[in-house]
Amino acid sequence: MLKIKKTDLQVLFDHCLAGYPNEACGMLGGKNGMVEKVYCMTNAKPGPDYYEMEAEEQFRVMKGIRDAGLEMIGLFHSHPHGQAYPSSVDVNQAYWPGTELPNYPDAVYVIATLMDLAHPVARGFSIEEGKVTEVPVVIVD
Amino acid sequence: MAIKVRIPTPLQKLTNGNAEVACSAKNVSELLDAIEKDYPGMKERLSEDGRVRRFINIYVNDEDIRFMEKEATVLKDGDTISIVPAIAGGGSKRKPRG
């Protein structure tokens, strides 16, 4: 389970909507499954069906999360035109190249669909050993 | 004093569970060889035809080697190397851009 405040989820949605019609991305810092900070990040290769975190920013934010005493508990991106479910590209990219070893085994992959722009929906998943398993995203006040 | 290499979680099986290893090398290319000698299999995970794999980023003291001299980036004792897999994906079945 991944817990997130309604206000933080809105930050995530706002970032995804700002990136529309392209994909947007970011990280979720937190502890014990509770998101404490949403990091809105740059899609270095923006497209309606692709994202890649800007590498330097990724490194800096990962360090910032550790320095803040938090853990990278989630990674998020939008699917502007598709379902909130990992695509084959999402699954392939979750692994070390040429293996099925998850790059970030402790992170929940959160995908926000913008198919209904007025009502974005976010779902969470773990991607491990070739298996996609839903991790419920629970909104707390 | 040696060079400190931070090992990402998916590769720690190859380093006997160590999150950090030490080695000696004059540049990144040599580092790949040195780390392979101590931990077989690492070089293939990190590089292809002598070049660091796409979607794998290597930092020397917080600097991305792509903006330095890439595989020829000079290393010295006391440097800290971080190996960081890129975070990417996409909503379609289109292959990642090269």
Question: Tags for this entry?
Answer:
heterodimer; A: 141 residues; alpha/beta; six-stranded mixed beta sheet; two-stranded parallel ribbon; 3 helices; 23% helix; globular; B: 98 residues; alpha+beta; two-stranded antiparallel sheet; 2 helices; 16% helix
Radius of gyration of chain B: 14 Å
State the low-pLDDT regions of chain A, or none. none
The helix/strand order of chain B is EEHHEEEEEE
Main pleated-sheet profile of chain B: 5 strands, mixed
**3D shape of chain B:** globular
Number of E-state strands of chain A: 9
Percent of residues of chain A in helical segments? Answer: 10-25%
**Which strand order spans the largest sheet of chain A, edge to edge or round the barrel?**
3-2-5-6-7-8
Most residues in contact, chain pair and counts? A-B, 42 and 30 residues
- As a whole number of angstroms, the C-alpha radius of gyration of chain A is 14 Å
Counting helices, strands and paired strands, the structural category of chain B is alpha+beta
Helices of chain A, by number, come to 3
Fraction of helical residues of chain B: 10-25%
DSSP strand count of chain B: 8
SSE order of chain A, one letter for each helix or strand: EHEEEHEHEEEE
Structural class of chain A: alpha/beta
Estimated share of beta-strand residues of chain A? 35-45%
Distance between the termini of chain B: 38 Å
* Strand order across the largest sheet of chain B: 2-1-7-5-6
- What does the oligomeric state look like here? heterodimer
How would you describe this protein?
The complex is a heterodimer of chains A (141) and B (98). Chain A contains 3 helices and 9 strands, in the order βαβββαβαββββ. With 141 residues, chain A is α/β, with parallel strands linked by helices. Chain A has a 6-stranded mixed sheet. Chain A is globular and about 35 Å long. Chain B is an alpha+beta fold and 98 residues long. Chain B has helices at 28-38, 42-46, and strands spanning 3-6, 20-23, 47-48, 51-52, 56-60, 63-64, 80-85, 88-89. The mean pLDDT of chain B is 92. At the A-B interface, β4, α2, β5 and α3 of A face β5, β7 and β8 of B.
